[in-house]
């Protein structure tokens, strides 16, 4: 096996570990958890992960979590783009569903709104936050 650990400095100090990958990972996860801000947070996670990888290569050090932050960030950007496309393509249906849900004061009334959404779009109401 080869030793892939970063080289030590000339004076014997261990190399610096880039923390930007961990911040990118945090931003990528936050992008997946907070849908209103998912596109922005996920894009920031991708940028932070790429910057950490570049800095690690420049300084011959480690960037833990950098690749994972790029992957999670890209997944968040794709999910965000999908949600936005649904909102644009089905804008009338989304408005009707939200109005129906606002008027629904019982579980059966909400289920009726869900059924109308599913029959009109073919998607579960979870897509629009139902």
**Number of helical segments with 4 or more residues:** 5
- How many separate structural domains? 2
Shape: rod-shaped
Name the average pLDDT.
Answer: 83
Main beta sheet, described? none
Secondary structural class: mainly alpha
SSE sequence, one letter per element: HHHHH
Distance between the termini: 53 Å
Helix content: 55-70%
Rounded Rg: 22 Å
Low-confidence stretches: none
Number of strands: 0
% residues in beta strands: under 5%
Q: How does this structure look, described?
A:
This protein has 130 residues and is an all-alpha fold. The chain has two domains: 1-89; 90-130, no CATH class. The chain contains five helices and no strands. Helix 1 packs parallel to helix 3 (66-89) and helix 2 (38-59) packs antiparallel against helix 3. The termini are far apart.
């Amino acid at each position: 096996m080869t030793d892939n650990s970063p080289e030590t400095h000339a004076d014997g100090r261990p190399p610096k570990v880039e923390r930007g990958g961990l911040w990118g990972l945090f931003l990528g996860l936050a992008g997946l958890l907070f849908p209103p801000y998912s596109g922005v947070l996920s894009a920031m996670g991708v940028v932070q992960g790429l910057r950490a990888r570049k800095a690690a290569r420049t300084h011959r050090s480690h960037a833990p979590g950098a690749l994972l932050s790029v992957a999670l960030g890209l997944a968040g950007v794709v999910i965000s783009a999908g949600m936005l496309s649904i909102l644009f393509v089905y804008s009338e249906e989304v408005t009707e569903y939200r109005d129906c849900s606002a008027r629904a004061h019982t579980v059966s009334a909400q289920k009726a709104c869900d059924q109308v959404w599913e029959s009109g779009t073919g998607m579960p109401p979870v897509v629009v936050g139902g």
